[in-house]
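Side project, low priority. Logging it here so it doesn't get lost.
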Amino acid sequence: MATARLRWRMPDGRAGELPLLGAETTIGRATECGFVVDSALVSRVHCRIVRGDDGWAVEDAGSSNGTFVNGYQIRTRRPLAAGDRIRLGLAPVVLEAELVVDPEPVAEERLAADPARTAPLQQALAEAQEREAAARRAAARAAAEAEQAHAEAAETRELLAGARDAIARLEGALAAARDELAAADAAARQELGALRDALEARRHDLRKLEAERDRFGAALAGERARVAELEAVVAQLRDVLDEDQRRIAALEAVIAAGR
């Protein structure tokens, strides 16, 4: 079987290669790991690279910040191919590594010894390498798009949190305004009740005054009737007095004539 190694790089510029020897290579913060990464963002045993009959595979060991292959987080064991990129952590990235597969020397010697087979195999290899390069470019674009989507999602979450805070403040202001409106409404209703009571009292007083006016009006009408009756009696008395004066004048004339 061909041999393989990890070509790794860290954000601080350190880089190197790690031969994948044995059936399993562990990566983590613990000193007993096959590749020790001294970072608090890396779990004690972060991931494992295992070797089987079909080649190499990687699996996450229950890490806190995740293991990613070609920009995608893995949940189960993921087979590896030459050129696959392994990354520990998403933001910030702690470690990036590329799987490098070395072909078997025997196979290379056999191919070199048989030129008739070498040409089509080399062409097929070139095509495979081109497809692999295209796949790497697509994976890189997908990883970049995933990182951009992650950043946009983080920005959206921040905007959403700000909007929620603003809504909470507006709801608080609305509740305060509602309380003020309720208090003002209660005060207005109380004042309106007092005005209605005062108006009803004034109406009661007015009804009393109107009743008194009607009583005095009726009494005044009676007095006027009595005055009219007295005036009629006075007029009759005046007529009688005038008649008596005329009689007295006639008698005086008779008396004067008899003398």
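Brief comment: The chain has two helices and eleven strands.
Revisit when time allows.
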